Amino acid sequence: MVLSHALGSFVIAVLLPYAKRRAFAMPRLWLALPAVWLLPYASEEMLLFIGALTLPLVVRQQLPWPTLLASTFVLLLGLWGAQVFSWGPRIDQEIVFRPIPGLAWPLTLPYWKAAQAGLPLASWRGVKLLLEELGPVFAISLGFIAWRGSLPQRLLLLPFVAGFAVAVAMQLGPWPKADMDRFYFFCVNVVFFTAPAWLVPLYEKRSARWAKVAVASIFAATLTSGLVYPTWRGITNSRSWWHAWEEQPGVELRAALAKVARREVVLSDERMSQTLVNAGFVVVAPMMRNYLNDVDESNFDNYATKHQYEADWWFLPADDARVAQRHNTAEAALSGYVLLRPQR
Amino acid sequence: MPAAHVSTAMAAATLGFAAWAITFVRRRRIVFHLGRNGVGLTPAFMLSLALVGLKLGELTGSFAAMCGFVVALHAAACTFAVCTHKRTLSVRRWSNIEIGSVIFVAAFVLAIPLADSACHNYNISAYLRGNIPPSASNAPHVPLPYHGLYDALVAIVVRGLPVDFELGMDLATVGLLVVVVMNMRAVARELFSSTKVRAWAVVFFLLAFGPSFMRVFDDGLMGLHGRMA
User: Which of B145, B158, B210 is the closest to A138 by Cβ?
Assistant: First the structure.
């Protein structure tokens, strides 16, 4: 997420001066071409955000057309290269689970407690969720900038509007609808970014003490929840620093199983398969539908029996019956497991 | 010298050279090709060059080549920069509230385990093992379409320093966070005339989430939108 924000905010910062048509020190747009090429690799939602922001500039002919053509070409190149777009739709669901986008009706809000279906937008719970998540400062900022803002300020609202429309109007088939939250939640802070435009002057213009206190309270209330939650998480769920200076997880496995070539497939039991995946090995194992690279232990035996002949290596417990039946010597051993070539 | 030591040295050199190159280019007038906010936008531009280098290096299937492409592109940027004069125009310093909020968020990122680090482990390990670009974790002929760009960057950090994946992701995230803030300062300069509004805009961008996080006490972590962030 933060990577796509780094690229996206760079493109926005280069584009915005063109909305003001300022002649002095205009950015050379072609310098943003590398970032434009990378956007499809970074995230789908950032593509939408940048597209929504750029469209009015294109319609108003505020961007030089040679750079626009070059950007379109580079973007298409990125879309062709990015596997989410080029390869993703063709992936077998049994190998890598993938979303199948479609329209959602009635409109639903992404919600992790009802991950698959979401919450109906036109319901009391849906409205309450929206109000709780965004709050009054967000709503006032949106209205204030739409009413009084300059063109560049208004442009900054478009990514949120487009993202929200997509988030409520689309669903992802078997993939959790809740994952669409990124389409608007990742843009919420861009609207909050504009809040000081009315809050700071409001504070500075008010001479009455009670008015200053009231505006300062709005500042505090808006920022406090963003301070409370991280602090609480930091205290209750701090990370372990034991192995911070080693290339963990999997440094021992990668060293012990150095004979396994980079794309050779390893058959193991369900417990070790997850450890092997974390260490970067390709395994014979089914993957969970909601979590990437998470071995589905409930379906492991059926899958492993069906696909066992795809394995280039076995990495099994030394006392496993399949190891006992083989007479070839182990090529490596670690933690009670041995590495063998299967005899075909 | 073992291959692992060679790749560690290359990754460390790549990180070191990238840091030096950003500093070097920021001191030259070439930055104004990125507009009047060019000084602040230079790290993001250099980051985009580094990521292009990683993607081009992926085509060779070699971790060392990925590092090599990053260094080559940064060296090219430095070569162009050296042809211009040194920059004399100074830039506006960060305000205390901007620095404070960045430190707070960085400390938060470093202090807690990331919610979805498990799904990145395979990708990062795949880069370190030379499975480049990473294939699906249960099918070597199918490319894995998710998280490749970020995980390639983290793999360089993990191998170069060396640190565990969690810390590698944290450090990469903090670095990217600083880049985002520098970009948003440039955006704020385009949007707002008052320096006070600009500074608070960056703070609101980083920390203002409305009452959203209070919901964790009702709904728990699973109820939050954007919890992966």
Answer: B210
